[in-house]
């Protein structure tokens, strides 16, 4: 099961591209069992393998941005009563693309077209923005419920409304240079092996927003 349009077209028009992928689902399940060790060698390897080394994701990022930066890496669990987004609409074009790697047994709702409207989302306790339900009933917004029994991948315009009904998503945010100025650094332990891993993740088209601390 996958989006019916090509990735860039789907993100521009609907706000999201998604595809079921049991290989990703299995990897997500496995790292979850280990407690999401994101700030370790294993965590950085997981990020590189499943985002930067995935041509599906890299091609989309490079088609939207001359240069973008990984500035967000976190897991979010089910919360079927609330709808979230990563940022409010500020410009016509996308400033952030969000990569969600879904666990097996996941179900989510994407609010197609919501990335093209100002929805006045407000701060939520989980660090995201919460969209009032009434604002999702406006003309031009439709919802699509997606089930990924084996897990999978979604790439969202950061302004899109979404809801996690079941399962969880390991989530990465890639921001354009101007938007990145508003983001805090992601902190990592100051270890040579981690610094080496991060250097290997970066390229001329995609950077990272890590800061090494003692």
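Q: What amino acid sequence fits the structure above?
A:
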């Amino acid at each position: 099961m996958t989006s019916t349009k090509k990735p860039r077209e789907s993100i521009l028009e609907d706000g999201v591209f998604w595809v079921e992928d049991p290989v990703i689902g299995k990897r997500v399940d496995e790292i979850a069992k280990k407690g999401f060790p994101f700030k370790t060698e294993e965590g950085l390897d997981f990020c590189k393998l499943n985002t930067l080394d995935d041509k599906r994701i890299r091609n989309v990022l490079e088609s939207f941005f001359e240069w973008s930066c990984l500035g967000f890496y976190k897991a979010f669990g089910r919360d079927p009563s609330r709808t979230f987004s990563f940022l409010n609409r500020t410009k016509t074009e996308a400033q952030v693309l969000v990569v969600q790697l879904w666990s097996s047994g996941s179900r989510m709702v994407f609010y197609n077209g919501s990335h093209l409207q100002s929805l006045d989302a407000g701060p939520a306790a989980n660090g995201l923005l919460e969209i009032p339900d009434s604002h999702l009933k406006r003309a031009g917004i439709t919802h699509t419920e997606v089930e990924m029994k084996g897990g999978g991948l979604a790439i969202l315009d950061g302004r899109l409304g979404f809801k996690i009904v079941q399962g969880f998503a390991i989530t990465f945010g890639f921001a354009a240079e101007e938007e990145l100025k508003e983001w805090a650094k992601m902190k990592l332990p100051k270890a040579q092996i981690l610094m080496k891993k991060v250097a290997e993740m970066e390229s001329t088209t995609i950077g990272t927003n890590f800061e090494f601390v003692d």
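Q: And what stands out in the fold?
A: The chain has a mean pLDDT of 94.
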